Structures are given as structure tokens and as C-alpha cells.
């Protein structure tokens, strides 16, 4: 049962609640941390053999081979519902169009005689994408990860995802991978999938960067391998915070909260409102709607552990709680949502008004649904083209310009006691 916290009775309880939500952060899961470390070490040492063992243990299937074949991908695509293929194609096009706007160009500055400076952009060559598949298949996540990588010009996209009990990968996931242009697909979920991408195995190529969301095991594994490879962010169990006033429809608010609660028992769904009446109506609606949903058990646990309805004394207080929680998804269901945008400092994605519900962003609108969770929206951004691009600096001085500035450079080098650095300049002008 979701709890209602009324801040007119004092703010202590809200602060405690916010702390509890923030403690949900992967940093607090000591036991999970240790078991993920063990999985990663074993995969690094024993490679494919360890993946096969962990897949049997966690996904309940003994694999003969880890890689998905071209034929399996073709067959999956051809057996998919054509209407689903059309919807995925349209969603992919929206994601492509949105991410194309994020492309930055290399630049050169040559307005000073004899000097040329600049920056060139290159795609990361090999990228690993994680696509969740433990409790639900996520074809939409294939698009969200692979399409921006393609837009950036990544040349090799390696995907890992957990297999089903029969040893296959969900056909809709494979179809989405074909639509998005994924190069190779491996049946490896959780921490073992992340370790395979980070260190490489006999079957899985080592990549330079790993992106994509997943459950707590995936999120922690990414944090542990960071440094051996780059990662995008911590994109763990889903979250939604609805910021609503008395104009909001309780049926819509409850439905949107439930859309994220159904992802995971560790998902978090919060309503912050200035209307006491709305708070109680949403609580009722949550119970009514949950009763008919297929993932009722997950939802009930998630709402009881990480759900909350907070009644704030006014909109300023409501906004300040929102910024402190820094949710993955924020819905503004208020009279004038556009006027509120500038007050929001921390959120992965902001949905404006009653007709921009969160699943519009999950599946279709174009912005990425791989987003920072556990308050990390305070410093991380949504997955985007930038995540797949790196930069190199360009530096050119001609002889005259270097001679003109040689004394300053030598001065700094000698101040650092680095005479070889100073000599590299001096040697050119003896
Ligand atoms: N933040 C985002 O952008 C975003 C986007 C989509 C989905 N998600 C999240 O992705 C997650 C999907 O979770 P899922 O579980 O369905 O799929 P998943 O693929 O993330 O995880 C399944 C894997 O977890 C591992 N695992 C399960 N129990 C384990 C145990 N006891 N010990 C070690 N490993 C274990 C297994 O290897 C299994 O293959 C949800 O939390 C959802 O909220 C987040
Ligand atoms: N809401 C998830 C991100 O937290 C993304 C997703 C994919 N499919 C459905 N939802
Ligand atoms: Zn979702």
C-alpha cells in the first residue's frame, strides 16, 4: 500500500522518505555488490564457460552457443506482427530524427596568422549495448540504444541480452535489432553480459564503451567495469515523479505512476501534489487500477517499498522536493506546465501536460528512454549522440609563431622543473 505524507504536519517525515528513496541507490546494495564482483571476476577468467554457467543459474537455460545467428534474426523478423514492425520502424525514425539534431561538427579556428587550432569528432568504434530481458522483453530499448549509436557513426554495435528459458532471444528484440542495425547479438544477461563486453570472451568481442539500462545487477556491474571501459551512466530500476496540482485527473496520474511501478520491485513511483483531495483520489485509483494489471505483484511491492504520495504546502515546496529527488521521469500535470520548466533543475526527462504521459517517451516521441536513475539526474544526462562520440584536439603553430612564444613556454616548463620539455622548444631555435 502506498503511503501518504502530509508536509503540513512538518517536513521531517518527507525528508526521511526522500532519504530512504535515495538510499535505494545502487551504492547501498552491499550484498548485491559482492555477488556482482564475483560474477565479473569469473567471466574475466573463464570467459564463455562462465557465461554458460551463469546463464544456466540465473536464466534457467543451458546454452550450446552464445551468439545469435543471422538466420535466427531473419526468422524472428519475418515471424513478427507486421503492425508491430511498422510501429517500431516509425518509432526508430522519430528517435533518429531527434538524435540527428544532437550531432556536433568538428571545428577549426585559424583567425590568428600562423596558428591553427581545432577539435575533431570521431565515433567510438566499438560499442556494447545492454538490452534488458529478465522479466520483460524491451525491443524499444534496442532502438533507444542502437539508433543514436548509428547516428553517431559507430562502426560495430554489439548487443547482449538474456535468453528466454528455451534458449532463444525474444523475437521482437531481434526484429528491433535488425531495424536499428545492430551488428552482433549475444545471449548473456545481467552482470555476466556486462563483464563479457568489458573484458571480451572467446565469443563476445571486447568493446570500448557499454551503454543501456537494466536491473540492479546490470547497474552495479556497469559501475564496477567503469575504467576498463567507458559507460554511459547508471540507468537502473525505473522511476517516475508526477508533480500535480488540483487540475490533474487522478485516473491519469495513477495510471502513469503504475506504468513505471510495473518495471521492477525496485522501481519508484511518487506523486508530489499541492492538492490533498487529489492525493487521496490517486491513492484510491492506484488500488483500483492495480487489481486488473498483469504485473500486480511487482507493482504492489514497488509501491509499498518505493512509492509515496507527498502533499506539499505550496508549489515552491513541491518543486524543491522534486529537485531533491531528481527523478528519471518527471510529469508536470499542472495548470501551466510550460511556466514551470525553468524551476526544474534535476530530472532525466520532463513530460508536459496531461497528454504527454511517460510511455509516450518510452516508446515513441524520439527523446531517449535510457535515463539516469537514483538521483543521478543531478549530474547525468539522457543517453544521446554525445555518448558515442569522442573528440581529439588539433594544434598547429608555424615556425615564426613558435619562435615568438618560445620564451613563455620555456618559462613554464622550467617552473615545473621539466627541462626536457623546455629543450624540445629550445632545440628548434639554436
Ligand atoms: N533507467 C532506464 O533507462 C531503464 C530503461 C528500461 C528498463 N529499465 C529497467 O531495467 C530493468 C529490467 O530488469 P529485468 O530484471 O527485467 O531485466 P535485466 O535484463 O536487467 O536483468 C535480468 C538479469 O539479471 C540477472 N539476475 C537476476 N537475478 C539475479 C541474481 N539473484 N544474482 C545475479 N544476477 C541476477 C540475470 O543475469 C538476468 O539475466 C528494470 O529495473 C527496469 O526498470 C531502466
Ligand atoms: N520506462 C523505462 C525506462 O525507465 C523504459 C521502457 C521501455 N519499455 C517500457 N519502458
Ligand atoms: Zn517504462
TrEMBL record:
GO terms for biological process: L-histidine biosynthetic process. InterPro entries: Ald_DH/histidinol_DH (IPR016161), Histidinol_DH_CS (IPR001692), Histidinol_DH_monofunct (IPR022695), Hstdl_DH (IPR012131). The active site is at 328 (proton acceptor), 329 (proton acceptor). It catalyses: L-histidinol + 2 NAD(+) + H2O = L-histidine + 2 NADH + 3 H(+). Pathway: Amino-acid biosynthesis; L-histidine biosynthesis; L-histidine from 5-phospho-alpha-D-ribose 1-diphosphate: step 9/9. NAD(+) binds at residues 130, 192, 215. Binds 1 zinc ion per subunit. Zn(2+) binds at residues 260, 263, 362, 421. SUPFAM superfamilies: ALDH-like. Its cofactor is Zn(2+). GO terms for molecular function: histidinol dehydrogenase activity; NAD binding; zinc ion binding. Keywords: Amino-acid biosynthesis, Histidine biosynthesis, Metal-binding, NAD, Oxidoreductase, Zinc. GO terms for cellular component: cytosol. Substrate binds at residues 238, 260, 263, 329, 362, 416, 421. Its EC number is 1.1.1.23. Catalyzes the sequential NAD-dependent oxidations of L-histidinol to L-histidinaldehyde and then to L-histidine. Belongs to the histidinol dehydrogenase family. This is Histidinol dehydrogenase.
Amino acid at each position: 500500500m502506498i503511503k501518504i505524507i502530509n508536509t503540513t504536519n512538518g517536513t521531517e517525515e518527507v525528508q526521511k522518505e526522500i532519504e530512504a528513496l535515495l538510499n535505494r541507490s545502487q551504492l547501498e546494495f552491499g550484498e548485491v555488490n559482492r555477488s556482482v564482483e564475483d560474477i565479473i571476476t569469473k567471466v574475466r577468467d573463464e570467459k564463455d564457460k562462465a557465461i554458460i554457467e551463469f546463464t544456466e543459474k540465473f536464466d534457467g537455460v543451458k546454452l550450446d552457443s552464445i551468439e545469435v545467428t543471422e538466420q535466427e534474426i531473419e526468422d524472428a523478423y519475418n515471424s513478427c506482427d507486421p503492425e508491430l514492425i511498422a510501429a517500431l520502424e516509425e518509432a526508430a525514425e522519430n528517435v533518429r530524427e531527434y538524435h540527428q539534431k544532437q550531432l556536433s561538427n568538428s571545428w577549426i579556428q585559424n583567425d590568428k596568422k600562423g596558428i591553427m587550432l581545432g577539435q575533431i569528432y570521431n565515433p567510438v568504434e566499438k560499442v556494447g549495448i545492454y538490452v534488458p530481458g529478465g522479466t520483460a522483453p524491451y525491443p524499444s530499448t534496442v532502438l533507444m540504444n542502437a539508433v543514436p549509436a548509428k547516428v553517431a557513426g559507430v562502426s560495430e554495435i554489439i548487443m547482449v541480452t538474456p535468453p528466454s528459458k528455451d534458449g532463444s532471444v525474444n523475437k521482437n528484440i531481434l526484429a528491433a535489432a535488425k531495424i536499428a542495425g545492430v551488428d552482433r547479438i549475444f545471449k548473456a544477461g545481467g552482470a555476466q553480459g556486462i563483464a563479457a563486453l568489458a573484458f571480451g570472451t572467446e565469443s563476445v568481442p571486447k568493446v570500448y564503451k557499454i551503454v543501456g539500462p537494466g536491473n540492479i545487477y546490470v547497474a552495479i556491474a556497469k559501475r564496477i567495469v567503469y575504467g576498463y571501459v567507458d559507460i554511459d551512466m547508471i540507468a537502473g530500476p525505473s522511476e517516475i515523479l508526477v508533480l500535480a496540482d488540483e487540475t490533474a485527473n487522478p485516473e491519469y496520474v495513477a495510471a502513469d505512476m503504475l506504468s513505471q511501478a510495473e518495471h521492477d520491485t525496485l522501481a519508484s513511483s511518487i506523486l508530489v501534489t499541492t492538492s490533498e483531495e487529489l492525493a487521496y483520489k490517486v491513492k484510491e485509483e492506484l488500488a483500483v487500477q492495480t487489481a486488473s494489471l498483469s504485473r500486480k505483484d511487482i507493482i504492489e511491492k514497488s509501491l509499498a517499498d518505493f512509492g509515496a504520495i507527498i502533499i506539499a504546502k505550496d508549489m515552491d515546496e513541491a518543486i524543491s522536493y522534486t529537485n531533491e529527488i531528481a527523478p528519471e521521469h518527471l510529469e508536470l500535470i499542472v495548470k501551466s506546465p510550460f511556466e514551470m520548466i525553468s524551476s526544474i533543475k534535476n530530472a532525466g526527462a520532463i513530460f508536459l501536460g496531461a497528454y504527454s504521459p511517460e510511455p509516450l517517451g518510452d516508446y515513441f516521441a524520439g527523446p531517449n528512454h535510457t535515463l539516469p536513475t537514483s538521483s543521478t539526474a543531478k549530474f547525468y544526462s539522457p543517453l544521446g549522440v554525445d555518448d558515442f562520440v569522442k573528440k581529439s584536439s588539433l594544434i598547429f603553430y608555424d615556425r615564426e609563431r613558435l619562435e615568438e612564444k618560445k620564451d613563455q613556454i620555456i618559462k613554464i616548463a622550467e617552473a615545473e622543473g621539466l627541462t626536457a620539455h623546455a629543450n624540445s622548444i629550445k632545440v628548434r631555435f639554436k
